[in-house]
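Hi everyone,

Forwarding the result from last night's run.
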Amino acid sequence: MKRFANLKCVSILLVVAFALLITAFLGCSKKSKQKEIKLGATFPLTGDVASYGQKAKRGIELATTEINSKGGLLGKPVNVDFQDDRGDSKEAINIMMRFATIDKIPVVFGSAGSTVTLAITPIASKNQVILISPISSSSKLSNEGGHYFFRTCPADDLQSEILSNWVAGSGVKNVAVVYTNNSWGKPLAEGFKEKFQKSGGRVLANEGVEESSTDFRTIIAKLQNIKGLEAIVSPTYPKEGGVFVRQLKEIGLGLPLFGGDNWGSPEFIDVAKEAAEGVFYTAPSEGNSPVYKYFAQRYRQKYGEEPDVFSAYAYDAALAIFKAIQNCNSTKPEAIREELLRISFVGASGTISFKPNGDLKSEAFTKKTIKDGKTVNLK
C-alpha cells in the first residue's frame, strides 16, 4: 500500500509538473506575441480608388522601415497590418471591428474615402482606438469624427473657400454645380455654393450624382439649356468625374471645368482620357521642406516612383503616431491621443499639429490643371 501511495504521489507530481510546463509554454507564447507593436491600416488597395490606398500604404511602410532601423518603439519593432477595404464601407467596418475587438490594436490608419472613414469612426470611438487618416478630408469629420479621430490632410472647409475664390476671381458669375452625393462631395459642393453666392455669384443648377455613375447625358442636356452658364464646378470622385468630363466633351459643351482634389488622381485621368486636358482643380499643397526632399529621395529609392501629396500625408501620419508613442512611453490609446494634441513637428507635407477635434492646424491647398496627361501647378 505504501508503494502504491508513493507511485500515486509521483503521478500527481508529474501531472502538476506537466501542467506547469504547459502554463510556462503558453506564457512564453503569449509573451512572444507581445514582442512587437502591432498597428492596423485599412485602405483601398484594389478597386476604383486604389491609387490612394497604395500611395498611403507606401508612405506608412517607409516611415515604419525607418523607425524599425532605429530600434523600433519602446524597444520593440513596429508591424503594420495592412488590409484592403476596396473603398467599401461594409468591408472597412468588418476590418475595423476585427482590429478593435479581436486584435485589440491601439492605432489604425485609414481610410481614403471620407464616407468609408465616417463609417468606422463610431467603432474607433466605442472601442477607444486611435483612427488617423491621411486622405479623408470631408468637413463632416470635423464634427463627427469622434474623440479618437485625427487626420494629417487639411479639411475641405478651406478647399471650398479656395475653389470659390478661384472661380469668382476668374470673372465667372454663373455656374452649375455637379457633385458626388456622398460625405465628401456634398459638403464640398455646399461649402462652395455658400461662399460663391456670398461673393455675388449665382449657382444656376445644383445636381448630385451617385458614386460610380456612368451616364450624365440627362444632366448635361439640362446644362445645355441654361442661358448664361459660364462654368461647371464638379467635386466628384475619380470614376464618375472622369465619365462626366468625357461625356461633356463628346456632346460639345465646352465650358471651363473646375473640380476637387480627386481630379488629380490617375483613375480620373484614365477614365476622362483626352477630355481631362485643361480641367482645373484644387488639391492639397505638396511639401517643399528639407524633410520632404529627404522623404522623396527615400521613397524613390524604395519604390521606383515619385511620391504624391497623399503618400507624404501618410508618412507624416505614421511619424505623428510614432512620436506620440515615444513621448508618452505607452501604446494606450488615451495616452497617445493626449500626446497627439501636444506634438508639433515639420513633416514631409508641412507642419503637423492638431486641433482638439483632430483636424490639422496648418492647412494649405493649391490650384492645378492637367496638361499633356500630367498634373501641373498653377500660380
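The chain has two domains: 37-156+287-364, 159-283+367-378.

Cheers,
N.
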